[in-house]
Amino acid sequence: MDIMKSFSLEGKVALVTGASYGIGFSIAKSYGEAGATVVFNDINQDLVNKGIEAYAEHGIKAYGYVCDVTDEDGVVAMVKKIEEEVGIIDILVNNAGIIRRVPMLEMKAEDFRKVIDVDLNAPFIVSKAVIPGMIKKGHGKIINICSMMSELGRETVSAYAAAKGGLKMLTKNIASEYGEYNIQCNGIGPGYIETPQTAPLRTEGHPFNNFIISKTPAARWGTTDDLTGPAIFLASDASDFVNGHILYVDGGILAYIGKQPQ
Ligand code: NAP
Ligand code: GCO
Question: Which ligand minimizes its atom distance to the CA of 66?
Fold first, then answer.
């Protein structure tokens, strides 16, 4: 058998949440290039329209839906519409996410809850809506976008770290509960990636910029393209016996104590 065929996504329907731009866009674009039908959502029509145009610039006819992934009724309605208009979802990437960088003692409980809602409750809600179709089809791939903060803490990101730590365990639990239906649920833990979400940390002279370079053996920030190969692997038949795993794509951050100060 041609081993490369096992990495193909031909004939698969892939939903990537929050994928008008950023990491989600890159992953969804790579899925289209690997043969999948690309479906994505974002939080408003303007973002969805911009996303559809951006995919089209890469020759990909993407299906876009407006949906706030924290709204369970809206998610259920979106998944039903996708199944009617495009097909049952074979691959789900729970990518949509937010961060609030605030010292814990200054963080309002409502802001903490908002981060948990988007970054942890929403992957639960969307997975719950998509899994019945995967069971019907006899296979499925769920990929949760975790984080360095699934393993590490740092100042000002208490809500985000709590959410991403929980997302790591939700990943393992979905893998445990639905593995018998030939559904594999894994995570991708990106390192520090150049996207709008990290733009505030990369401003000229920001101390965090050099800090990340010193903590990354690859001595660079990651790009969204660095995530696409691992994402295709976890969405393809090539990973059918990989389940409950968090694949860290971090240039080696988690393995490294950090560069000795010169
Ligand atoms: P981003 O640039 O902020 O994009 C996030 C996307 O999710 C945006 O399109 C955003 O729409 C959408 N979104 C937010 N809340 C939503 C909701 N309630 N419903 C639907 N869509 C929603 O983030 P990113 O850097 O690409 O990160 C994507 C994922 O990777 C996130 O889960 C993030 O935590 C994770 N991650 C990022 C990094 C990194 O270094 N960048 C590293 C590790 C993990 P709006 O524009 O309306 O907010
Ligand atoms: C931060 C960053 C990180 C990245 C990512 C690292 O403020 O520390 O935003 O949290 O977004 O999650 O994996």
Answer: 1
Structure-token pair, residue 226: 């660095």
Which amino acid, residue 27? I
CB-based burial label for 37 (10 Å; 0-12, 13-18, 19+): buried
In angstroms, the Cα distances linking 70 to 19, 87, 146, 171, 208 are 15, 23, 17, 18, 31
Q: Are 69 and 96 in contact (CB under 8 A)?
A: yes
Residue nearest to atom 35 of ligand 1 (CA): 145
Residue appearing with tokens 């691992």: 230
Domain boundaries, the chain: 7-193+223-253
Q: Which of 160, 178, 192, 248 is catalytic?
A: 160
**pLDDT tens for residues 80-136?**
999 999 999 999 999 999 999 999 999 999 999 999 999 999 999 999 999 999 999
| Residue 160 annotated in active site | yes
CA of residue 100 relative to chain centroid, distance:
18
Q: Are 119 and 165 in contact (CB under 8 A)?
A: no
Which residues, at least 6 apart from 76, have a Cβ–Cβ distance to it below 8 Å? 129
Most informative mutation of 157, 227, 249 for ligand 2 (most atoms within 8 A of CB) = 157
Report percent pLDDT > 90 for the chain.
Answer: 93
Q: Does domain 7-193+223-253 have CATH number 3.40.50.720?
A: yes
CA of 18 to the centre of ligand 1 (A): 6
- Say yes or no: CB of residue 198 within 6 Å of ligand 2: yes
Query: 1 C-alpha vs ligand 1 centroid, how far in Å?
Result: 38
CA 197 – ligand 1 centroid, Å: 7
